[in-house]
Write the structure tokens for this entry.
Amino acid sequence: MKHNGGSNSMYSGLASIGQHFLRLRRATLVALVVLAISGCSSGSWRDASRQSANIAPSPESATEAVIQVYGADAWGWRGIFAVHTWIAVKRENADAYTVLEVIGWRAGHGLPVLRVEEDIPDRHWFGSEPELILDKRGADVERMIDQILSLSESYPWANTYTVFPGPNSNTFPAWIAKHVPELGLELPFRAIGSGWEE
């Protein structure tokens, strides 16, 4: 039986075209990744905005108790995959918000990674505009604020930070949600580390 030399050359030609498309596909994927990374948080974090996004009600206009949870794209290339989340609370008739959040770089300065301080509740997260995840107001909120502030004093990873898989900035709000179920907090899918304790 004779072998058809033409069909062999056809198969080798198809294989060559397939390899060419595979190389082209890889090059396109690499180019897209490089563009995405270079487009994320260009510049220095020192120069990035930390201004209010004007989402939270001012203490003067909202005398009621308030609990808000925010999320914003993480700094740099991590923002492609993940968000940073935090909690802001204001007691009834208080003139300022208290912000509760985990910031990893604090560990390198000998500080607890859990920060609980009076601050702007809806700051940009180093250039990334925050989104409101949860907004609770009214009579029951004061009691939940008591619980949140009390729990923050016993947070087991107040001095521990690991970007992945956690504990990180998303682990704290998730831990609060677990211990204060009436808060009804559900963190977004991109809150990597929120399921670390489970």
Q: What stands out?
A: The chain is about 30% helix and 15% strand. The chain has two domains: 1-38, 46-183. The two ends are 66 Å apart (CA to CA). Confidence is low (pLDDT under 50) at residues 30-41.
